Amino acid sequence: MALLPRPPEPSRVSRLLNKRLIRTAIAVLSFILTVYLVLASRDGGVAVVLPLLGYRETPEAYHFSTTSSFQPVSINPTGKTKEELCATFPKHLLNYVQPVLKMGHSEGRAKIEAQLDSVLACFGKDDLLIMSDLDDTIREHKIVDALADLPQSYYNLRKNRDFKNYMWQRQMRDNGTLHSEDPTATKPIDGWVIDKYKFLPMVERAWITKPDKPFYFFLEADTYVFWDNVFRFLQTFDPDVPVYMGSPSPGQYDKTRDIKTWFANGGPGFVLSRGAIKALLHRESGSNGQYIEPPIAEKWLSLVSEECCGDSVVGWALWNANVELQGYWPMFNPHPLHGIPFSDLYWCQPVLTLHKTTPKDMVELWRWEFGQRTLHRPLLYSDLWHFRHPGELGVLENWDNGDWDSWIPPSEAKVDSFKSCEQFCRKEDRCVQWNWRGGNDKTCILMQSIRYGQAREREMIPEKRGAKPEEILAGEKPKGKWVDYNSGWVGERINK
Ligand SMILES: *[C@@H]1O[C@H](CO)[C@@H](O)[C@H](O)[C@H]1NC(C)=O
Fold it and tell me: Is 172 touching ligand 1 by the criterion CB < 6 Å?
């Protein structure tokens, strides 16, 4: 009997190596597959992009069709009154999407007025919920103090020092000094620090006041919302599935599961479905039927007092209720209208929201929108381009077109003026605009996305981080540098 030669036995090490390689390959492939399935299962329109990590990924295509419910879909807004425009608004869809505005008593009145004249203009007093840190009435709207019924634990100022701002505000209103002409009277109240306490009570209160709505849309005083696109988009989701969507920001790190979590930035607005709110508000009960968990506002109080902002607490509370963020960027947009960084990442995407848009722009954009809607496709960023073009004028002094998707020339290039900054930009194909920060700064910023920007006068940038320019100017010797802002655009490349 002839002995068959045996195949060479792989060494133990290389066998292990092979196994590990195979395992790694399987892990990588299943990760890619999972990501693909997650993206595909949402019927497109997905833009899970991690902009803060400098990670550029082209958003997925939006490949399902939606229709507008405005009637008529489009009208010429010129000369029309607010009532005439609002007559076209599909009010019945407010049974499907409940708008909830979060504001603060100390917030600029111009912002609120502009919001009520634009994004919220078509909502009556029963359509809209407004949550604040003091009860009040603005126009016909009742403003709810979302913090009024919080548990006693919130008033323990040793644990929870910020909350005194809220208490002072109430006391001052009660003793008549809150609206006093003397600006120093209201100075100790820091509205920003109270803000984070409002988020969880706001969600709970919205649910109690307007229970069982399919979706809740939470926005702020400077959130611009394209309602037609929001209605179109949300109608493609099942409200009984937990849905939490918005503009993704990096949140808490989940140590037990070794996962970095994400939350929806509050400024561009966020959405919770009925299923998500039910999961969030759910409290475990024991065998005797008694709750064994506190209500959410109490459950997360210590986290709220440590965290900078309430939106991240909402994200973490939802994560702990097994509701994960669906990040839809750039549909939910953290940029203002004048700061949209137009590029291939934006151009063909529907626009759902904008943040920090100026009061004047909010009202103008809102009127313009009435003439732009089309039945079979949502409004896109490329449509917004027609509302206002960046770069039409070529160059502008005392103008800041920003610092986004940007880089600077190497020091050996010796770029030391507006002119040489321009020349450097024109030499690099991807450069569509430049920003020369003159004065003591002398920085040339080159950009590959196109932004309109805004007027910006010469100013003192303080050396000390966080100090306000006026604090420095009031001091004897200014510590910092003078900067002037000058912007330019490469017209031919933008047109192309
Ligand atoms: C009103 O209340 C505030 C906050 O508690 C207090 O600082 C202030 O002295 C009060 N003013 C008057 C006139 O009572």
Answer: yes
Average pLDDT over residues 215-220: 98
3-state SS, residue 436: strand
Residues 268 and 412 in one domain: no
Whose Cα sits closest to atom 8 in ligand 1? 172
**End position of a domain, from candidates 327, 343, 362:** 327
Q: Do 28 and 143 share a domain, yes or no?
A: no
Element (H, E) at 361: helix 359-369
Q: What is the pTM of this model?
A: 0.84
Which residues, in sequence order, are CB contacts of 155 under 8 Å at separation 6+? 163, 167
Q: Is 425 in the pocket of ligand 1 (CB under 6 A)?
A: no
Ligand 1 pocket member 171 (CB < 6 A):
yes
In-domain check, residue 8: no
> Which run of H or of E encompasses 249?
strand 248-254
Tell me, yes or no, whether 176 and 249 share the same domain.
Answer: yes
Whether residue 410 is found in the same domain as residue 285: no
Q: Are residues 21 and 92 in the same domain?
A: no
Q: Is the pLDDT of residue 1 over 50?
A: no
Segment 276-314, tens digit of pLDDT: 999 999 999 999 989 999 999 999 999 998 998 999 999
If one counts the domains in the chain, the total is 3
Give the relative orientation of helices 310-320 and 274-281 as an angle to the nearest 10 degrees.
80
**CATH value at residue 431:** 3.50.4
175 lines ligand 1 (CB under 6 A): yes
Q: Which of 177, 178, 181, 190 to mutate to test the pocket of ligand 1 (most atoms within 8 A of CB)?
A: 177
User: Crossing angle of helices 310-320/191-209, nearest 10°?
Assistant: 40
User: 162: which residues sit within 8 A by CB, 6+ positions away?
Assistant: 190, 193, 194, 196, 197, 305
Q: Which of 169, 172, 178 to mutate to test the pocket of ligand 1 (most atoms within 8 A of CB)?
A: 172
User: In this structure, which residue's CA is closest to atom 4 in ligand 1?
Assistant: 168
Residue 409's domain comprises 393-466+477-496
Residue 234, helix vs strand vs coil: helix
Would you call 345 helix, strand, or coil by DSSP?
coil
Query: pLDDT of 408-426, one tens digit each?
Result: 999 999 999 999 999 999 9
Whether 221 is in a domain gets the answer yes
Spatial CB neighbours of 301, under 8 Å, sequence gap ≥ 6:
153, 154, 160
Look at residue 471 in the predicted model and tell me its pLDDT.
Answer: 53
Name the residue of 166, 170, 175, 184 to mutate for ligand 1: max ligand atoms within 8 A of Cβ.
Answer: 175
Do 103 and 238 belong together in one domain?
yes
Average pLDDT across the chain, whole number:
86
